[in-house]
Design brief:
Layout (H helix, E strand, L loop, with lengths): L4 H13 L7 E9 L2 E7 L9 H4 L3 H4 L16 H9 L1 H4 L3 E8 L5 E2 L5 H10 L3 E4 L3 E4 L6
Parallel strand pairs: 3-5
Antiparallel strand pairs: 1-2, 1-3, 3-4, 5-6
C-alpha cells in the first residue's frame, strides 16, 4: 500500500536520524518544498570535530541534564539546524519541516517540540509548517517566542 505523504516524509526523517552521532537522542529533519525534498539534517558534532559516539562521552549526561536543558553544553548541532544550514533561506521559504527523534539506548521514538533556538531558526528560514513524529502539526506563525 502506498503511504500517505506525511508518513512517507516522517519515515525518511527516521532514516536520516540513524546518522546522528549523539549517545543520548538522535533526530532527523527533512525539509520539503513543492513536494520535493530540498534538504535533510541529523544531530551531530560540527563537521571535522569529534563525535560523541566516538568518545562515548556526553557532558550533559555526565552533569545529569534533563532533555531540553543546558543545550549550550552539547557538542551537537541539531537536525533542524543542519537541514536549514545546508540550503539557506532562499530555498526554505514556504517549506515544510518533518522531524523524527529516538532515544539511543532504547531505540524508542520520542515526540518533541524544537528547542527555542531551533524555533527561531525555523521562523527566520521561512518554514511554514513543522510535522513532528508521529503526526503532530505545528504551525510556525502560531509560535509565541
Amino acid at each position: 500500500m502506498r503511504p500517505a505523504k506525511l508518513d512517507y516524509y516522517l519515515a525518511i526523517a527516521k532514516v536520516v536520524a540513524t546518522r546522528g552521532t549523539c549517545i543520548r537522542r538522535n533526530f532527523g529533519a527533512v525539509i520539503v518544498k513543492g513536494d520535493s525534498i530540498i534538504s535533510t539534517g541529523y544531530s551531530g558534532a560540527p563537521r571535522g570535530k569529534v563525535n560523541c559516539c566516538d568518545t562515548m562521552t556526553c557532558q550533559r549526561e555526565e552533569l545529569g541534564c534533563k532533555p531540553g536543558e543546558r543545550y549550550e553544553l552539547c557538542r551537537s548541532v541539531h537536525a533542524e539546524q543542519n537541514a536549514i544550514i545546508a540550503v539557506g533561506r532562499k530555498e526554505t521559504t514556504g517549506s515544510t519541516l518533518y522531524l523524527y527523534g529516538f532515544e539511543v539506548k532504547t531505540n524508542k521514538s520520542v515526540s518533541y517540540d524544537p528547542c527555542l533556538l531551533c524555533k527561531k531558526m525555523i521562523i527566520n528560514a521561512g518554514i511554514e509548517k513543522v510535522f513532528v513524529f508521529p503526526n503532530r502539526e505545528l504551525i510556525v506563525v502560531d509560535w509565541d517566542i
